Amino acid sequence: MKLGELAGGVPGSTLDGNGDVEITGLAYDSRRVKPGDLFVAVEGLQADGHAFVGDAVARGAVAVAVDRDVTLPQGTPVLRMGSTRVGLAQVAAQFYDRPSRKLRVAGVTGTDGKTTTTHMAEHVLQASGVVAGAMSTVSFTGSGGEVDNLSGQTTMEAPEVQAWLARMVEGGVACAVIETTSHALVQERVGACDFDVAAFTNVGHDHLDYHATWDEYLEAKARLIDLTASSADKGIDKTAVLNRDDASYERLARRPIARRWTYGLTTASDLHPLDLNVTGTGSRFRMRTPLGETDVTLHVPARFNIYNALCAAGVCLALGVSLESVGTGLAGFEGVRGRLEPVDVGQDFRVYIDFAHSAGALASALAELRPFTSGRLIVVFGSTARSDHDRPGMGRAAADFADFFIITTDDPLDQDPVEIARDVQMGAEGKAPGHDYEIVIDRRAAIRRAIELARPGDCVLLAGKGHERSMRMASGSEPWDERAEAEAAIRERLAIR
Ligand SMILES: Nc1ncnc2c1ncn2[C@@H]1O[C@H](COP(=O)(O)OP(=O)(O)O)[C@@H](O)[C@H]1O
Ligand SMILES: [Mg+2]
To answer: What is the rounded distance in angstroms from the CA atom of residue 222 to the CA atom of residue 180?
Structure first.
């Protein structure tokens, strides 16, 4: 695409220099510039990109986009914009020919349940015969097969998001579901996505101590509604799907949008369950929706998955799926890798893998498993190197909600796993080491220890790694497969007995 044509699609930008230059790619990291790229200098993506425009040109960038003055080799075409962060999204959408206008798009945001709801909606769409694709923490789909998301980011930067949407369009996808974090919304990564549906799970207080911060967090998420309301018209009502039982509801409901559907457990919501019957492995209910009623059977455990299912149902109905197809589709959903994923190789106790890696998520995962556990609830978990993870809080959650716990390692990066475990242990005050819990730093050994301790009727939760494929240590990333570890440990034990 010619630079001039690219610039023409970026509102508020001005081009200084030769617009006939051919742009063959986009880069926002100067280290990854390829000859022919337009380098977009963004503050905060890799320090301040403006400091690296010279490097980018040296590596072959044929033009640069900036939002402030920089010194450049003479003759380099410059695209000036008010904000390169906003501009990067627009440039990317333009470069890939606005793919999000060629399919229907739903965004799913919230604190918990985004990935599950995203893949549930994708599954229901597929099951109803719609060619669908998804982008999530776990994977990217819609372009033939499933590609693991190894980026460590749930919502990638705008060029990757737009490139994947373009692949979906090429693959014949009619509906895309994009898991959208609040970071992504603040950083404009989905700024130029034309959404049709904005879906919200919950907006928790988890790691937020101040109300003002929660307000900001909520504002960031609410932007998904504004983006959706102002997106290109594709012939369906722009819809917000909101959790009426969540504290965020009142605020989110004030944002203007063509259609608003609420979901929740009471009859006050547009989508709600009737005759709800919850078991240890799923639930069954009659679902009332704005379009009528249908029977729903869920083969995924936990009450929160009823919320996720109602939300996914709202998304799919808004995208045009028939009510009956939503009911049938939900029944065929088998869960997301690493989200309360059962591991069953014939043992007489239950084992689950879950991605819960915050104190709140750990507590809620354990609380969900408790009512269906006749024996003891055993959990294996660790805290990561991330500073926003409340280590003692995780220890407290395990102490409060489990009968026995094993503190182990989870992505320590350059920190000492023993020290991290000690921080976690601080939260387990009042519990006796050796009696109520153990510290087993080696995760493989910790999993084996938990499996060895389990008795018939017990439930073992392996928390934190979920779907992840690596353990990030000081020495680098090592391959990790929680499911394979769990199965191997169980098989070893079964063979011994
Ligand atoms: N609707 C929900 N409300 C509260 N917790 C949830 C919900 N859905 C899932 N969870 C919990 O959060 C964990 C992460 O779920 P996931 O779907 O990956 O959410 P996200 O993508 O928002 O992090 C799950 O393993 C489960 O323990
Ligand atoms: Mg996620």
So the answer is: 11
* Cα 399 to Cα 424: distance, rounded to the nearest angstrom: 10
Around ion ligand 2, residues with a beta carbon closer than 5 Å are 114-115, 137, 154
Helix-helix angle 304-319:114-127, to 10 degrees = 50
SS3 call for 376: coil
Quick one: which ligand is closest to 206's CA?
Answer: 1
Indicate whether 209 pLDDT > 60: no
Q: Is the pLDDT of residue 119 over 50?
A: yes
Nearest to 365 by CA among 390, 342, 334: 342
pLDDT averaged over every residue in the chain: 94
| DSSP per-residue string spanning 24-41 | -EEESSGGG--TTEEEE-
For the segment 340-365, the average pLDDT, to the nearest whole number, is: 94
Cα gap 42→491, rounded to integer Å: 51
Ligand 1 atom having least distance to the Cα of 354: 25
Residue whose Cα lies nearest atom 8 of ligand 1: it is 113
User: Measured in angstroms, how far is the CA atom of residue 437 from the centroid of ligand 2?
Assistant: 29
Q: Are 141 and 184 in contact (CB under 8 A)?
A: no
Q: In what order do the strands lie in the sheet with 292-298?
A: 272-278, 283-289, 292-298
Q: Is the CB of residue 155 below 6 angstroms from any atom belonging to ligand 1?
A: no
Q: Is the CB of 355 under 6 A from ligand 1?
A: yes
All structural domains of the chain: 3-83 (3.40.1390.10), 99-331 (3.40.1190.10), 341-496 (3.90.190.20)
CA 112 to centroid of ligand 1, rounded, Å: 4
Residue 179 Cα to ligand 2 middle (Å): 7
Interval 418-462: pLDDT, tens: 999 999 999 999 999 999 999 999 999 999 999 999 999 999 999
Q: Which of 337, 392, 408, 394 is nearest to 364 (CA)?
A: 394
Give the ligand with the smallest distance to the CA of 113. Answer: 1
Rg (CA), the chain: 24
Q: How far apart are CA 169 and CA 149, in angstroms?
A: 19
Atom of ligand 1 nearest to the CA of 466: 25
- Mean pLDDT score, 471-481: 94
CA distance linking residue 381 with residue 20, whole number of Å:
56
Identify residue 384 by its one-letter amino acid code. Answer: T
